[in-house]
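Title: [Solved] Putative ABC transporter permease/ATP-binding protein 3D structure

Original question kept below for reference.
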Amino acid sequence: MSMESVAWDTMYKSTNAPSRKRLRGDRRSTLRRIIRFAAPHRTRLLVFVGLSVVAAVLTVVTPILAGQVVNLITAGADAPATERFGLSTSNAIVVMAVVIAVIALAEAGVGLVVRWLSANIGEGLIYDLRRAVFDHVQKMPVAFFTRTRTGALVSRLNNDVIGAQRAFSDTLSGVVSNAVTLALTLTVMLVISWQITLLALVLLPVFVIPARRMGARMANLSRQAAEYNAMMSTQMTERFSAPGATLVKLFGRPDRESTEFADRADRVRSIGVDRAMVQAIFYTALMLVSALALALVYGVGGVLAVGQHLDAGAVVSLALLLTRMYAPLTALANARVEIMSALVSFERVFEVLDLEPLISDRPDAGELSPGPVSVRFENVDFGYPSADRVSLASLEEVAGLDTRGGRQVIHDVSFDVEPGRMVALVGSSGAGKSTIAQLATRLYDVDSGAIRLNGTDIRDVTAESLHRGVGLVTQDGHLFHDTVRANLLLADPDASDEDIATALRRARLTEVIDSLPDGLDTVVGERGYRLSGGERQRITIARLLLAHPSVVILDEATAHLDSTSEAAVQDALGEALEGRTAIVIAHRLSTIRAADEILVLEDGRVVERGNHLTLLARNGRYAQLYRTQFADGDDQPEVGLSA
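Solution (posted by the thread starter after getting help):
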């Protein structure tokens, strides 16, 4: 096993050893939440429970009738079957057989309806859970995703939700019908012969006591299996992406990756074997106890029947009822195991739902007014949130162990961008430029100070209207594994083909799209790897143009591009910035010479501000950065953004 697996085991044992009292309290709380979650399905649940009771009654009736048939047979052909109807023994046997057949048909029909209801309720619940988890995770701040393993989240959305669903689609139906069946069976057996029934129940503790321990063991194994499956899912998600696969190949790590995956898969395999053996021991013990009890009924009941103390039919009824008693008993004992596993799944789902988003709309949040927008930073301070502020303390397996953060990275930053004007941010890597872009789009909230759009604090503006009015283009140029059209329509799902064509033309992409095999319906591949960096970036610009934001923020949108691609992207950006308020973050100083104001950041502070010529004349930090870039004397061509 790898060192990571050993560390994981150690962490798991240390973080999952609550007291029994606390564990019981947590489970009661989980059960209450499950009931609230299932409330929308209460009508179908009531019908389902009612039909389950009917099915249980039908299950008990058949052994009683079978005993009566045996009594009729042993009574002889000439004995009257009943005084009420005056039927002959033969006719009475036929009637009994017909009734048994009808009950069997009714039992099968009710069973199908019960199964349909349980499946319907279970699938409805899984739909509700998946949608709740997906919607809730989307509300989490960016800090959550920077510390979260994607595969672990996907595992919770799939495996754990399905595990929770089984509690309703399978376990619930079994618990209700089997509990009623068990109660009715015991009642009827006690009425027929309480002595034999008590003797048969003597062996019950031999089964029940181990079943309780096995239930706890199965729940523990289920949780461990879920953890390791999440780890495997994370590794596959990361390594099966184009960047991940490339990284593994470039550093010659396939064998090491295979070993790590095999270690985790081997752990899952071992857990699976343990679970199978626990279940096998459980069922074997149950069948053995059931067989011994049946032998007891036949032995004692047979002796009593021969001595005329009990009818032969009663012995048969007791034997059939006993087999039908241990079947629901088996199911109920197994249901305890399934319920424990389902509770684990529900707990893991609720852990995600309990994460509180750091950023949410205020109750009185308003809409960002349309039209030209001014941007103002007022004495802004900010430090990236630590893990506990992102509410990840209870999700080590989801968030990883990264608790870094909390260090202040923006210090007392103030500046204004008037409508239609452009401010550029420059500085060394890590100076805080991208952080300012993320604050302006409210991917994070400031710690102190304020960011205002047209004089309104962005925390008083709804997130939907904010992101509709403020557009961000990053250097990543991220695209989903979908068609060009689908990636563009993220900005405006109602955009017409004419709108798309206009955006592509302004982004200088018309010829590129026409050259693709399926045009707009060409799948770009994961993260757009089918396209060049410049083409991906221009698609993000076309997407921005479709969104029609009033404020445009460019976060090093031309970084990592060759000169030809940069020129094409700069041309497209000129279209995107036309008439809009702009904040441009640039590493290449030649691209922001025409900015109305340039802010120079160092260690999260504005150390200089002014236009290009003023800052050069000042011979300060900006001039130093400029000389460093063009120290070889080969100045880059004038491809800068126009104001």
